[in-house]
Amino acid sequence: MGYTPEELDQLKAWPFVEAKKLLKRINNKTPDKGYVLFQTGYGPSGLPHIGTFGEVARTTMVRRAFQEISDIPTKLVCFSDDLDGFRKVPLNVPNRDRLQEDLGLPLTKVTDPFGECKSFAHYNNQKLRSFLDSFDFEYEFISATQYYQDGKFDEMLLLALERYDQLMEIMLPSLGGIAKGRDKSYSPFLPVSPVSGKVLQVPVLDRNISKGTILYQEPDGEMIELPVTGGNVKMQWKPDWAMRWAQLEVDYEMYGKDLIPSAELARKLCRVFGKPPPLEMFYELFLDENGRKISKSSGGEGISMENWIDYSSPDSLGLFMFQKPKTAKRLTFDAVPRAVDDLQKFVASYPSQGLIEQLNNPAWHVYAGNPPKVGSDISYSMIINLVGAAGTVDEEVIWGLIKKHANVANPSDNPELYRNLKGAINYFNERVAPTRSLRTPNEKERIALEELRNKLLDWTGGNSGEEYQSMVYSIGKNHQFDPLRSWFATLYETLFGTSQGPRFGSFIALFGARKTADLISQRLKDTSFASRNS
């Protein structure tokens, strides 16, 4: 659809900022190839992790923003560098000893340690695609092995052979150059040995541009002349990245902050291939709970895609990817409740917003411009606390507690709420229950809790969350909790074993005044016993 310059200027969400840059880069004209090409890259030397998924999710968000402000056709490709040599056995796969035997082979020739696919690369590629498909991404998957072997890179490979010296002039300084003897050992071409089948990192001894071949020496000393076309060689990954940009005429690509130096080289190399580099955006890396980068080889200590989807819908993961892409974020388990609750708030605000506000709302980007209607005000965090308070993980029991408040009878009436219920129960079982510790209240806190219990037992006011919240607030104020948030922290820590939670008044409205009073009585009894025996 068309937007005025003033409206475009008001689109501040980062995918629109990127989309506007891209539109300017192509001069608002359709490229000769007929579409604007977005690319994401994947190295299948290890299991795909959540950061890999995030790159596709974020790139898709920019693509959707571009489609909103332009009628120019677009295309997204996910390129798997699966002809790369297998250099290191990942720590997070079975049958590691068997994989040691395949070191050096192209990833599409490495044994699948899981015993399910033709190769390790095929397994990892399939794993990646299954997650991308679960989000209904529109993309074309490209295998480097297939592209090399089908001759789709032949034109650029022959050009690289012709402009070999120019490529070396760019690469050598980044590798230590002549001073470290890299002019004798480095080559942008990696022969795929016809003897061993391995991807060899050996120098090129001679080139024959007219024949399109290179001469190299096998480890056993045999001299072999090999065509650079037809999948007989694989380019080193930085020249390979640039060659891919040039051959596919990529218009936009994202990459992690750690690849900024490599991208600077790829830009220069791409121009050697006679093509302009794409518009690029770098994003910060995900960190695990110990502040370490999450990688596909080690897996890190962060939450996996499987974990996240077991606890919540893919939509909340999409929001996590949307938020602050240039800020390093800890990808820990407590990110799930925050993301689900934040997304619920963004969706709730969407209908009352004007068009520009909606386009800047994260919900627009998570749901591809079509957010669902809000079906309930019951937050994910609320359900987690409800499970803990109810003392059961039985889905039917928990559903029975919330369905009246949510004005639904069956799960089919609000599938999103029921999905959150199931995910919250899983989250409670695996992440909360094993480490939950109910704090013993001090004397001041105990007196305040007793007053709250008594007020609830004698409650004759309304049953809205706001009315309960006002009453809880006044008790904290009367007992001189300063700051007042320490009173609410007391409630969470002594009743739920967590440091924070949803609005307590809303919890009472959902759980019920009498049940909440009974919960307080039980916790006071339990912690009193614990205190006397500590």
Task: Explain the overall architecture.
The strands form four sheets. A five-stranded parallel β-sheet has the order 3-2-1-9-10. The protein is elongated, with a radius of gyration of 29 Å. Helix 11 (260-272) links the parallel strand 9 and strand 10 (279-283). Helix 20 (443-457) packs antiparallel against helix 24 and helix 21 packs across helix 23 (504-511). It is built from 24 helices and twelve strands. The protein is an alpha/beta fold and 534 residues long. The N and C termini lie far apart (68 Å).
Index terms:
alpha/beta, 3-stranded antiparallel β-sheet, Rossmann fold, 24 helices, elongated
How do you describe this structure in short?
The chain has 534 residues and is α/β, with parallel strands linked by helices. It has 24 helices and twelve strands.
The CATH class assignment of the largest domain is Alpha Beta
CATH topology of the largest domain: Rossmann fold
Large-scale geometry = elongated
User: Whole-number radius of gyration?
Assistant: 29 Å
Number of helices: 24
Strand count: 12
CATH architecture type of the largest domain: 3-Layer(aba) Sandwich
Structural class: alpha/beta
**Separation, N- and C-terminal Cα atoms:** 68 Å
